[in-house]
Design brief:
Layout lengths: L13 H16 L6 H8 L3 H7 L11 H13 L7 H17 L2 H13 L1 H25 L6 H25 L6 H16 L12 E5 L2 E2 L8 E4 L7 H14 L1
Antiparallel strand pairs: 1-2, 1-3
Length: 250
């Protein structure tokens, strides 16, 4: 036997209720004129409940970034030496895109709000910097011991963030229409083509360094021969780069 009365809709979790109440008030009264007291009153909770989830009013505008940063850090930490480090950081950036794409309406709303409030733009820049530092720290570990390894790590991390944000913001400016994944893939493709390993290439040359009597040698001498093993389709600039690395280490 069916019931004629529908079951009451489940209430959203308190954290989600606070975010929803905050944005309703931001749209109605503006960000600056909305107080934490206004938000908790509309959400029907106390001030202590608000600060349990959000240290500041700015944090309620960016409720998922801490989780996303933790997911990115864990993803990078799980990468092994068999993973191309440049592809790995590009895939890590796609985790940020996925967070935005999960709720396009909210993401567009937040983007428009941050464009109007200088304080939120500054807060957003600090969030972006933390993502960039996470990528750079991973790359520094992968490039440790290589000539200009730290510089290379920082440049690639900056390029990944710039490419990702260029595509993401174009999607947000369009009102969240179209496929953001395709746009981000296209932008990150430039980074991978410039800095990454060619598709199908081994993780590193079998050996790039001085050889004596057919065996790798630790130190170079006047009679040493440097052998570089690489794929036939590897670009010339990459082979030169590996050769310079070997000679620098030698």
């Amino acid at each position: 036997m069916s019931s004629s009365t529908a079951a009451p809709a489940a209430k959203p979790p308190m954290r989600d209720a606070l975010v929803e109440a905050a944005f309703r008030l931001f749209l109605r009264h503006g960000y600056e004129r909305t107080t934490v007291d206004d938000i908790v009153a509309l959400a029907g909770v106390g001030r202590r409940s608000f600060f349990r989830y959000f240290p500041t009013k700015e944090d309620v505008v960016f409720p998922d970034h801490e989780r996303c940063l933790a997911d990115m850090t864990a993803f990078l930490a799980a990468g092994g030496p068999e993973h191309d480090p440049v592809r790995r950081v590009c895939d890590a950036a796609r985790l940020v895109l996925r967070m935005y794409a999960e709720n396009p309406a909210f993401s567009v709303q937040r983007y428009r709000l941050t464009r109007q409030v200088p304080g939120l733009r500054a807060y957003e820049l600090s969030v972006v910097w933390r993502y960039e530092r996470a990528l750079a720290e991973y790359l520094r570990g992968r490039f440790a011991g290589r000539p200009d390894g730290t510089l290379r790590a920082d440049v690639i991390a900056t390029a990944v963030v710039a490419a990702h944000n260029n595509a993401l913001r174009s999607w947000l400016r369009s009102g969240g229409t179209g496929d953001p994944g395709a746009a981000v893939d296209h932008a990150l493709g430039y980074v991978q083509e410039t800095f990454g390993r060619p598709a199908g290439a081994p993780a590193a040359p079998v050996w790039a360094g001085p050889v004596r009597d057919g065996e790798p040698a630790g130190r170079s001498g006047p009679d040493d021969v440097v052998v570089l093993v690489s794929r036939r389709d590897a670009p010339l600039w990459r082979m030169v780069q590996e050769l310079e690395t070997a000679l620098g280490r030698a």
